[in-house]
């Protein structure tokens, strides 16, 4: 027993001595310092020329990380968020998009023509028997094999919009009615006449369409009433104007001094009658200086003075449902829209609003103004936001219709 206790004591002493001779246990590690967050990635985008463009970023799930920001310079420096995966750039002039992977961006990124790979918006007009289709299920398969599906509701008035469609061949499939289907193929190009390309898809068979609304049904009565009211107001205004003129003429003949005093109070000076012969008046006039000859004035006498530009007289459709047709600009105020009551009625263009724009003629100048349309009014490819002059040679775009001003 004593031997056992002795051996146990010896073993314990050996273990303690070994622990003292060994290495000291490592001190508990301090908490790892937080790594500094990586700085936002920077890149410089350069374009072929200046123009209105917008850019924004999205994460891996396609969620926008910020609101689109505008630039009009030929180059712009961007600071991208840390979790940005995709950079989108929109060209407001062409309507095209560039999709850039943030991981592949370099310090300087040049956006050449091949970088613009998508159409920002594609409009599809569905018609049947010259009426907008009420409901359908439309699928679009792009050149990359991806498919987008849209439901056409009656409130859309036969118009569907697809976004971010890759350039190239696309296939549209519309399903409607009782197991009916229509298929159409087309090709989207980077260079085109319309900023928002429009595809006309005509359906046949038993197709649910939209009937004219009550407002449109009453258009035959409302314009007539408005014309009569306008005519009555014109007659009243004309009678008042004639009465004022007659009164002023009588007052000028019978009481010229009272008329002069009254007009002076209003800040209007009437010419004073002069007495004497015509020769006296002529002699009182100051002598007029002689004009220098054309040679000394720097103007060759054989050169004719420039003539004023010819005013716009008509619109000639070059693209769209009315290609080849001409619309004369005859009135001082002419409205343009999809309803038949307008002087320029584009009832077959589903991209035109019911009341889209108006054309005003002021002397030799012609102006066009957008009236809050859905798809906008474009003059020479630029969307307008205020009354804009037009002249022969200009181009106008309303919906899917392109016009030449003559």
Which band does the percent of strand residues land in? 25-35%
Molecular shape: extended
The number of E-state strands comes to 26
Instruction: Specify the structural class.
Output: alpha+beta
Radius of gyration: 39 Å
Helical coverage, percent range? 10-25%
Total of helices: 5
Mean pLDDT: 79
**Ranges with pLDDT <50 over ≥5 residues?**
214-222, 273-307
Reported for the largest beta sheet, the result is: 8 strands, mixed
First and last CA, distance: 127 Å
Concise structural overview:
With 406 residues, this protein is of the alpha+beta class. The protein has helices at 2-21, 214-217, 222-254, 256-265, 278-284, and strands spanning 41-46, 53-58, 69-71, 75-80, 86-91, 96-101, 108-110, 116-128, 131-132, 136-141, 147-152, 159-166, 168-176, 180-188, 198-202, 314-319, 326-328, 333-337, 344-345, 357-362, 365-370, 377-379, 382-383, 388-390, 395-398, 401-405.
What would you say this structure looks like, in words?
The protein is of the alpha+beta class. Helix content is 18%, strand content 34%. Strands 2, 3, 5, 6, 8, 9, 12 and 15 form an 8-stranded mixed beta sheet that branches. It has a 6-stranded antiparallel beta sheet with strand order 17-16-26-25-22-23, with no helix packed on it. Strand 16 and strand 17 form a beta hairpin. Helix 3 packs across helix 4. It is extended and about 150 Å long. The termini are far apart. 18% of the residues are buried.
């Amino acid at each position: 027993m004593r031997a056992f206790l002795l051996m146990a004591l010896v073993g314990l002493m050996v273990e303690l001595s070994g622990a003292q001779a060994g290495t000291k246990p490592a001190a508990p590690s301090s908490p790892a310092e937080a790594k500094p967050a990586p700085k936002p990635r920077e890149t410089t985008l350069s374009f072929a020329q200046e123009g209105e463009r917008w850019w924004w970023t999205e994460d891996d799930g396609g969620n926008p990380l910020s609101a689109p920001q505008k630039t009009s310079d030929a180059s712009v420096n961007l600071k991208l968020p840390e979790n940005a995966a995709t950079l989108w750039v929109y060209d407001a002039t062409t309507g095209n998009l560039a999709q850039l992977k943030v991981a592949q961006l370099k310090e300087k990124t040049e956006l050449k023509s091949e970088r613009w790979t998508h159409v920002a918006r594609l409009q599809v007009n569905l018609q049947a028997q010259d009426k907008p289709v009420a409901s359908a299920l439309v699928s679009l398969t792009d050149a990359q094999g991806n498919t987008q599906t849209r439901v056409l509701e009656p409130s859309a008035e036969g118009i569907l919009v697809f976004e971010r469609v890759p350039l190239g061949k696309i296939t549209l499939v519309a399903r409607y009615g009782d197991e009916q289907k229509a298929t159409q193929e087309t090709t989207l190009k980077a260079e085109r006449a319309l900023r928002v390309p429009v595809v006309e898809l005509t359906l046949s068979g038993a197709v649910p369409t939209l009937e004219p609304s009550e407002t449109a049904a009453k258009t035959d009565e409302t314009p007539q009433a408005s014309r009569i009211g306008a005519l009555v107001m014109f007659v009243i205004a004309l009678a008042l104007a004639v009465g004022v003129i007659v009164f002023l003429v009588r007052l000028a003949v019978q009481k010229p001094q009272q008329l002069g005093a009254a007009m002076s109070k209003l800040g209007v000076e009437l010419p004073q009658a002069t007495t004497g012969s015509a020769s006296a008046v002529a002699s009182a006039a100051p002598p007029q200086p002689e004009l220098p000859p054309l040679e000394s004035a720097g103007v060759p006498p054989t050169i004719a003075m420039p003539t004023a530009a010819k005013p716009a007289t008509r619109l000639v459709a070059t693209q769209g449902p009315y290609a080849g047709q001409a619309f004369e600009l005859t009135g001082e105020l002419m409205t343009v829209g999809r309803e038949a009551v307008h002087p320029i009625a584009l009832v077959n263009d589903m991209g035109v609003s019911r009341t889209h724009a108006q054309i005003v003629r002021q002397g030799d100048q012609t102006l066009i103004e957008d009236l809050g349309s859905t798809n906008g009014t474009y003059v020479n490819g630029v969307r307008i936001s205020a009354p804009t002059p037009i002249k022969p040679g200009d181009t106008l775009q309303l919906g899917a219709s392109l016009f030449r001003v003559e």
